[in-house]
Amino acid sequence: PHPNTLLNLHEFAHHATRLLSPKARAYYTSAADDLFSKDFNHTVYTRILLRPRIFRDCTICTTSTTLLSNPVSLPLYISPAALARLAHPSGEAGIAAACAKYGIAQVISHNASMRVEDIVAGHEDGVFGYQIYIQQDRKKSEELLTRVNALRQIKFLVLTLDAPVPGKREDDERQSNLGGSGVAAPSGVQLAKGTVDVSKTSANPETGPGAGTGRALFWGTASDLTWKTTLPWLARHTDLPIILKGIQTHEDAYLAALHAPLVKGIVLSNHGGRALDTAPPAVHTLLEIRKFCPEVFERVEVWVDGGIRRGTDVVKALCLGARGVGIGRAALFGLAVGGMEGVERVVEILKAEIETAMRLLGVERVEDLGPRYVNTRVVERE
Ligand code: FNR
C-alpha cells in the first residue's frame, strides 16, 4: 500500500511484517524469551489515563523542543536499530532523509547497515546521535570514535548498556535453524564493525543450533564495562555529550546523574524487550525515579523508548518527565512499507496524534505537560 493511505502505526506493523523476508521479520520483531517486556512496553501506556482540562484555548499547539540544547520540531526521535537495509535499500540514509524533512533527531546504530559518514551526508543541519557498543578490542572502538568525532552532524554519543550479552530471541534463532546464512543481511549490507562470522550463526551439526542475526551482531562486544573504568576511558576519546541507554532502575538513574556533567542524559529502555525478559518498561522506571530520586530530572535529560504506538503514548511519557521519546521498530516498519516516504508518514502520523492529544488535553506547549495530566494509579499498584 502507499504509505499515505495508512492511518496508524498498527497498520504499518501489519503491512511491514508481510513485506519483510522471514529472516528480517524475525530479526526486527523478535524479543527475549516470552516477549513479556516487549508486549508490556506498549500495554503499560493503555493503563495510564489522561486527565484532559476543558474550556481552554487550544488554537496554538507547539511541539518543538530541544534535545541536549539541539532544537528539534518534536520530542520524538528515532532510536538506534541495526540493519535498516533489511527493510529497504535506502536504509539508515532513508530514515535520515525523513528526519531531515521533519526536523527530528535520529540516533544511528553501531550496527547500522551503512557507513555513518554516508548516513549524515547532505544533512548539514541534522541532529544525529551515534550509538556505540564498545568492543573487546578497544582499539577498534577508538578508531570508530575518531570517525564519529569528526562528523559535525553528530551531536551526542549514546552508550548502550542493557545488552552486554544478547537476550535469548527464539524467533531469530529459529529462522537461522531453517538453513542458509544466519545473518539476515542480503549481500551488500555493510556493518561498521566489518564482517560477521556467518558460520557460527546457522544450524550446523558441529556447532549446534543457529544463533540468529542478533547474536551474530554481538560478537566482539565488550561485556566488562563498568562505571569506574569505562566512563573515564570514553571521555578520553570523545568530547561529545554522553547519554547512557538502557537504564532500568532508579538506582542506576541516580548513579548516572552522579556522573553529570560527564553524563548528559539517560535513556530509560529495556531494548524493546530484546535483552532481559520481564525487565520493566520505561514507564515503571520513570515512576520509580519520580518517587525515589526526582532530582535526576534536574541533573540529566531523561529520554525513554519502547512500545510507542500512539501520540498519546508520547504525551504520557512527557507528562511523567521524559524529554525525548524514541521509536525503534516503528521507523523500520515505515521504511519497509515505503522507504523514506514510509518513515515520513510514520512521523507525520505521530506528530498529528501528539498535536491532537495536546489540544484535547488543553496544553499548548510540550514543556507545559506534567504529571497533573495523567492518572497513573493502576500502574503504581503493579
Ligand atoms: C534495536 N535496538 C537497538 N538498540 C541499540 O542501542 N543498538 C542497536 O543496534 C539496536 N538494534 C536494534 C535492532 C532492532 C531490529 C530493534 C527492534 C531494536 C533497541 C532500540 O534502540 C529501542 O530500544 C527499541 O527498539 C524500542 O522499542 P520499540 O520502539 O521497538 O518498541
Automatic annotation (TrEMBL):
Cleaved signal peptide residues: none
Keywords: Flavoprotein, FMN, Heme, Iron, Metal-binding, Mitochondrion, Oxidoreductase
GO annotations of cellular component type: mitochondrial intermembrane space
The keyword Oxidoreductase appears for this protein: yes
Listed cofactors: heme b; FMN
GO molecular-function term, one example from the UniProt record: heme binding
Subcellular location: Mitochondrion intermembrane space
Region: Disordered, residue numbers: 167-187
Reaction(s) catalysed by this chain's protein: (S)-lactate + 2 Fe(III)-[cytochrome c] = 2 Fe(II)-[cytochrome c] + pyruvate + 2 H(+)
Keyword Isomerase attributed: no
FMN hydroxy acid dehydrogenase domain mapped to chain residues: 1-379
EC nos: 1.1.2.3
Family in the record: In the C-terminal section; belongs to the FMN-dependent alpha-hydroxy acid dehydrogenase family. In the N-terminal section; belongs to the cytochrome b5 family.
Protein name from the UniProt record: L-lactate dehydrogenase (cytochrome)
Protein source organism: Sporormia fimetaria CBS 119925
Span of the entire protein shown here: 121 to 502 of 524
